[in-house]
C-alpha cells in the first residue's frame, strides 16, 4: 500500500503543479505587460516660438499696479490694446489701440518698429540704440510673459510690457 500511497501523492502533487503553471500562464496571457511607449519630445527653439503676433490689453489700473508712482497724466497714452509682431528677420513692430475712455494724446506713439534679439530667455529690443531694453521672458502655453526688465530706462515700457501676459494671436 505504501507504493500506491506514494504514487497517489506524486500524482496529486503533479496535478497541483500543472494547475498552478496553467493558471499562472493564463494570467500572463490575459494581462500582458508592455513596455511603456516613449513619446518623442519636441524641443521648440525659443526664437521660433517668439515669432508671430502677441496681444495684451493694459488698463490704467494695470499700469498703476506695476508702477504705483506712474504720473496720472500719461496713463491714457500708455494703456490700450497692444500687438507685438516679432518677425523671423529680427525686426518687430508694436501697435497700440486706445481704450474707449482713453483717447491718445497727439504726442503718443501708437506704432513702433525696431530690431530684436533673443539669447536664452533674455529678449533685447532696439539692440545697440539709446532705446535698448532687455527683458527676461517666458514663453509657453500660448503666452509670452515679460518676467522682469533687466535693463531699461523706459518706465512706461516696463509698465506696459510686464503688466500682463501676452496671448499669441492665431
Please provide the count of β strands.
Answer: 8
Q: How helical, in percent, are the residues?
A: 25-40%
CATH architecture of the largest domain: Beta Barrel
Strand content: 25-35%
User: Spans with pLDDT under 50 lasting ≥5 residues?
Assistant: none
Order of strands across the biggest sheet? 1-2-3-4-5-6-7-8
CATH class of the largest domain: Mainly Beta
Label the overall shape.
Answer: globular
- The tally of helices reads 4
Global mean pLDDT: 82
CATH third-tier fold name of the largest domain: Lipocalin
Derived structural class: alpha+beta
SSE pattern: HHEHEEEEEEHE
Distance between the amino and carboxyl termini = 90 Å
- Largest sheet at a glance? 8 strands, antiparallel, barrel
* Count of the separate structural domains: 2
Descriptive account of the structure:
With 170 residues, the protein is an alpha+beta fold. The chain has helices at residues 2-30, 46-50, 60-66, 155-163, and strands at residues 52-58, 80-86, 91-97, 111-119, 122-125, 133-140, 143-151, 166-168. The chain is globular, with a radius of gyration of 33 Å. It starts with a helix and ends with a strand. 18% of the residues are buried. The mean pLDDT is 82.
Give a quick rundown of the structure.
This protein is 29% helix and 32% strand.
Amino acid at each position: 500500500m505504501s507504493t500506491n500511497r506514494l504514487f497517489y501523492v506524486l500524482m496529486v502533487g503533479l496535478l497541483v503543479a500543472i494547475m498552478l503553471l496553467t493558471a499562472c500562464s493564463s494570467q500572463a496571457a490575459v494581462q500582458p505587460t508592455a513596455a511603456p511607449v516613449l513619446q518623442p519630445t519636441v524641443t521648440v527653439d525659443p526664437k521660433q516660438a517668439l515669432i508671430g503676433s502677441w496681444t495684451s490689453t493694459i488698463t490704467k489700473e494695470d499700469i498703476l499696479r506695476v508702477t504705483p508712482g506712474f504720473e496720472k497724466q500719461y496713463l491714457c497714452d500708455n494703456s490700450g490694446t497692444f500687438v507685438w509682431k516679432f518677425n523671423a528677420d529680427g525686426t518687430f513692430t508694436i501697435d497700440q489701440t486706445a481704450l474707449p475712455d482713453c483717447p491718445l494724446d497727439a504726442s503718443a506713439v501708437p506704432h513702433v518698429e525696431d530690431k530684436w534679439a533673443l539669447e536664452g530667455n533674455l529678449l533685447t529690443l532696439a539692440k545697440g540704440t539709446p532705446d535698448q531694453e532687455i527683458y527676461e521672458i517666458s514663453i509657453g502655453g500660448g503666452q509670452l510673459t515679460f518676467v522682469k526688465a533687466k535693463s531699461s530706462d523706459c518706465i512706461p515700457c516696463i509698465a506696459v510690457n510686464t503688466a500682463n501676459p501676452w496671448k499669441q494671436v492665431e
